[in-house]
Amino acid sequence: MPEAPNLIRRFHAGESNAFAELVSTHQDDLYTLCLRAVGLDKAEALAETVLLAAHQALHRLDPDTHLYNWLMQLTVEHIQATSPLECGPNDGLEEGSATIQTLLDDLDLHFRVAVIMRDIIRLPESQIAEILELPLGTVRSRIHRARLTMARGIAPIMDNV
Amino acid sequence: MESFFARNRLSAYLDRTLPKGEAEAIAEAIARDIALSADVQAMQKTLSLMHTCGRAPAPTGFSARTMASIATQPVPGSQVAWLQRRMARMPTELLALAGAMAVILVAINRANDGADERLASNETTMQAPAVAPQDNAKTVEQTSDTAAVEPPENASTPAVKAVAKPAKSNGSKARTPVPKSLPYDPASPLSYRILHGGDQVLYDIAVLADETGGRLVDVHGKLFTPHSLNESRSFSQLYLITNIDESAKAHAMLIERSGMEPYPINGPQPPLGEDETVFLIEAQL
């Protein structure tokens, strides 16, 4: 994800469109993480809540902070705070997408977030480790376990389809 | 390689991040073990589906709706940024005029101080001879030269001091610096008055709030927006809420900025969270 190095400084300087630029730059990844983590019916509201929180906190953010990682961290925190974490129906999704969503819904949240970042948003493992503030080995382990669990769950679903 | 170990390396194998030798060993294990081979195929299918799904674009209008929601939110603790923007918009001439006014006010203030001091010294010199004869009748009989050179003991000197002290203290009462080490108790919130400074007052208060990690609110606890301060009123009350850990620092900074002794808050206070305390700031803008 390309990082806008001056976006935080521009926001601090009071540039009116800096936050709008932040939203348009990062909204897809942020929404994707919300969608896959909490389901279609809650995703948009959650993504909006995350951005409102970001707007309230951005003025205190160190200008040298990696903005994308910070936003993803904030999103993960909000996902974890969505309790109880029950995904809604996946009726609005396409077939393949709904299949993936069903498999993701069965995962523990830690594994779910890691595999979404790795295989759907396609972030490098090292960046996921930075976002989740975990050792690289832990992140790899979570991704692997998530993939294996999903792989074992996909056969029955595909048979039913 | 045993199937158990090979299975644990499947993700890395499919990501092609394994060294060549290890990848070949896993490929052999997959060829040998049907269950492992099934896992690989299922995992490949899962990965393929996830990669195909990819990022989901945010719904149409999401950005606009989010920005509209943000517009209804209070200014996010950015009193400093707001003031910086506001001051940046001020015409240079207006700033120059404000500067000139400040210089004139300082000059007038200093002139008044000089007059006070002269008045005090005049009172001292005028009252000293009047008191001395009352205390010692000898001075009436002395010549003026003798009285000037050798004032009677225990008479004129203490009398002059007695008159001079109150005159001096009356003249400088408002300028007495308030000690910064006043006893402060977070459980007894205080009110601080800041009378001079114009826009700088707002700026100083905002910086103070930032430095103590506090927030500025109105009496209902609603986040303070600088816009509401000086549009219609020239004298405003706002509340600084800080964590108790930062309260002593905030108190010291407010004392320093105010230059006046704080007094207890008599009236309503905004709702406080756990481990929070409040300061009332009355600012002349």
Describe this structure in words.
The complex is a heterodimer of chains A (161) and B (285). The model of chain A has no long low-confidence stretch (mean pLDDT 86). Chain A contains eight helices and no strands. Chain A has helices spanning 7-12, 18-38, 40-57, 67-81, 95-105, 109-120, 125-132, 136-160. Helix content of chain A is 72%, strand content 0%. A five-stranded mixed β-sheet of chain B has the order 2-3-5-1-4, covered by helices on one side. The longest helix of chain B is centred in the middle third of the chain and has 44 residues, at 92-135. The termini of chain B are far apart. Classes of the chains: A mainly alpha (161), B alpha+beta (285). At the A-B interface, helix 2, helix 3, helix 5, helix 6 and helix 8 of A face helix 2, helix 4, helix 5 and helix 6 of B.
Brief write-up:
The complex is a heterodimer of chains A (161) and B (285). With 161 residues, chain A is an all-alpha fold.
Residue stretches of chain B low in confidence (pLDDT < 50, at least 5 long) are 127-180, 228-233
What is the general shape of chain A? globular
Largest sheet properties of chain B: 5 strands, mixed
Percent strand of chain A equals: under 5%
Global structural class of chain A: mainly alpha
Helix count of chain B equals 13
Beta strands of chain A, count: 0
pLDDT averaged residue by residue of chain B:
72
| Greatest chain-chain contact | A-B, 47 and 38 residues
Mean pLDDT of chain A: 86
Distance between the termini of chain A: 35 Å
Query: Within the largest sheet of chain B, what's the order of strands?
Result: 2-3-5-1-4
**How does the overall form of chain B come out from the CA principal axes?**
elongated
Number of helices of chain A: 8
Secondary-structure element order of chain A, as H and E? HHHHHHHH
What structural class should be given to the helix and strand makeup of chain B? alpha+beta
Can you give the helix content of chain A as a percent range?
over 70%
Number of E strands of chain B: 5
Q: State the end-to-end CA separation of chain B.
A: 79 Å
Q: Roughly how much helix do the residues of chain B carry, as a percent range?
A: 55-70%
Identify low-pLDDT runs of chain A. none
